């Protein structure tokens, strides 16, 4: 296994983790209950013993992540990513999720249709649950049928998902999103 790099990113919501190889981001971890847990998970995924100094390109993404968590409207489409070996369908799903702009949502079923599989909502849920790059691939913007929250595999579960969406102006009232301007 080739050794990757990681760093801990201090954000307004806590210590996140970012891993990369070369100039491509390979992992992003939302804060865990403890900074040490976040770091151990990145170490196990990268093979690195200690945090590394990021390159200028990685540092730009770090800055954007920090600004995102401060509430600034940020897009991560220029961030270069390297996905682990995933199916072609998962790649299409991640591309569709990545195309969702700040404050916009889509259901698992909508993402499945956009990715070319009309009855693939469950598979989209599996892809979102194993997303190695939350925020950069904004799986929190993908909702269950009926525009319900659905699941979220990061620490804090659906509460974290709801907080991320609220930060982007999507609020839930009785289980339904209330979108700004609608």
From TrEMBL:
<keyword id="KW-0808">Transferase</keyword>
<protein>
    <recommendedName>
        <fullName>methylated-DNA--[protein]-cysteine S-methyltransferase</fullName>
        <ecNumber>2.1.1.63</ecNumber>
    </recommendedName>
</protein>
<keyword id="KW-0227">DNA damage</keyword>
<dbReference type="Pfam" id="PF01035">
    <property type="entry name" value="DNA_binding_1"/>
</dbReference>
<feature type="domain" description="Methylated-DNA-[protein]-cysteine S-methyltransferase DNA binding">
    <location>
        <begin position="88"/>
        <end position="170"/>
    </location>
</feature>
<comment type="similarity">
    <text>Belongs to the MGMT family.</text>
</comment>
<dbReference type="GO" id="GO:0006281">
    <property type="term" value="P:DNA repair"/>
</dbReference>
<dbReference type="InterPro" id="IPR014048">
    <property type="entry name" value="MethylDNA_cys_MeTrfase_DNA-bd"/>
</dbReference>
<dbReference type="GO" id="GO:0003908">
    <property type="term" value="F:methylated-DNA-[protein]-cysteine S-methyltransferase activity"/>
</dbReference>
<dbReference type="GO" id="GO:0032259">
    <property type="term" value="P:methylation"/>
</dbReference>
<keyword id="KW-0234">DNA repair</keyword>
<dbReference type="InterPro" id="IPR036217">
    <property type="entry name" value="MethylDNA_cys_MeTrfase_DNAb"/>
</dbReference>
<dbReference type="InterPro" id="IPR036388">
    <property type="entry name" value="WH-like_DNA-bd_sf"/>
</dbReference>
<dbReference type="InterPro" id="IPR036631">
    <property type="entry name" value="MGMT_N_sf"/>
</dbReference>
<keyword id="KW-0489">Methyltransferase</keyword>
<dbReference type="InterPro" id="IPR001497">
    <property type="entry name" value="MethylDNA_cys_MeTrfase_AS"/>
</dbReference>
């Amino acid at each position: 296994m080739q050794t990757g790099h990681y760093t801990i990113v201090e954000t307004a919501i806590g210590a996140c983790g970012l891993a990369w190889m070369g100039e491509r981001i390979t992992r992003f971890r939302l804060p865990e209950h403890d900074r040490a847990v976040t770091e151990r998970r990145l170490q196990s995924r990268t093979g690195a013993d200690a945090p590394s100094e990021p390159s200028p390109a990685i540092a730009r993404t770090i800055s954007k992540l920090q600004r995102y968590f401060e509430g600034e409207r940020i897009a991560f489409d220029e961030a270069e990513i390297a996905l682990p070996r995933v199916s072609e369908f998962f790649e299409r799903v991640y591309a569709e999720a990545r195309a969702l702009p700040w404050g916009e949502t889509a259901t698992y079923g909508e993402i499945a249709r956009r990715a070319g599989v009309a009855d693939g909502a469950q598979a989209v849920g599996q892809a979102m649950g194993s997303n190695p790059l939350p925020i950069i691939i904004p799986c929190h913007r993908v909702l269950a049928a009926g525009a319900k929250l659905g699941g979220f595999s990061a620490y804090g579960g659906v509460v974290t998902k709801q907080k991320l969406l609220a930060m982007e102006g999507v609020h839930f009232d009785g289980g339904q999103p209330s979108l700004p301007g609608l």
